[in-house]
Please model this.
Amino acid sequence: MGLVEEKSTIITGAASGIGQATARVFAEHGANVVVADVDVEGGEETVADIREAGGTATFVETNVADPGDVEAMIRTAVDEYGGLDVLFNNAGIEGNVAKLADQPVEGFDDVVDVNLKGVWLGMKFGISAMVEDGGGSIISTSSIGGFRGIPTYSVYGATKAGVSLMTKTVANEYAEEGIRCNAVAPGIVETDMVSRVLEEDPSQEEEFLAMEPMPGLAQPEEIANTVLFLGSDLSSRVTGATLPVEGGHLA
Ligand SMILES: NC(=O)c1ccc[n+]([C@@H]2O[C@H](COP(=O)([O-])OP(=O)(O)OC[C@H]3O[C@@H](n4cnc5c(N)ncnc54)[C@H](O)[C@@H]3O)[C@@H](O)[C@H]2O)c1
Model:
């Protein structure tokens, strides 16, 4: 019996990196997974991998910043899998990586739209479905950049701090309805996002490798397993938390 057996689960940003790894881990543990992403090819690849391994998944093209898309994403879980038990708001973009005054004005809205409004929309439409279904677990992806003022990540960090605060608010607002709301805060994870940053500024590699006391970079599966814990009944008394998964960086 899997840890999330038959749980109807939506994962955004599941075409790549942390979201893709989480979709696979949830499916391995018995969940019925809605893979949501703007990237159709990557999303369909995630679904194909899951089905090949004997799991259950479906893809829905979703821009998390678009209210209509997010409503349709939630409806897909309800229609296909009979409700909504777990929602992982994970889609995110890094935006412009530069010191604040050097950042172009263009790009600011995109980061806020995807990283903050996207999480808000997921919560807004997801909560209604969960309340009808007797509760559920919402998890969102924050970052160590939401705890510390890491140079060149001012806008990104502000959205991630916002995700953690929104998580606390929702935990308070919906505890009585049986909804738990938590976040994970990864450090540096070996995904396309980090490759993009290093392509633009290779000098950050040494800094990335030195950031966490534990050696090397985190793998997406290590974040996925923490999300699995938060999505499962193993974390039945955990709500309002942002769990750091960062090799001891914040310590
Ligand atoms: N990689 C890291 O070191 C790291 C560290 C801390 C936090 N995070 C966060 O983890 C999450 C996942 O990032 P990742 O590292 O796996 O990166 P990634 O680039 O590999 O994956 C991000 C996914 O989000 C999707 N996406 C982007 N904009 C979208 C939108 N508007 N609607 C729907 N999907 C969209 C992309 O298509 C992609 O599949 C992000 O929220 C990121 O901020 C990553």
Observations:
- The chain has one domain: 8-189+219-242.
- The chain has a mean pLDDT of 97.
- The CA atoms of residues 162 and 251 lie 21 Å apart.
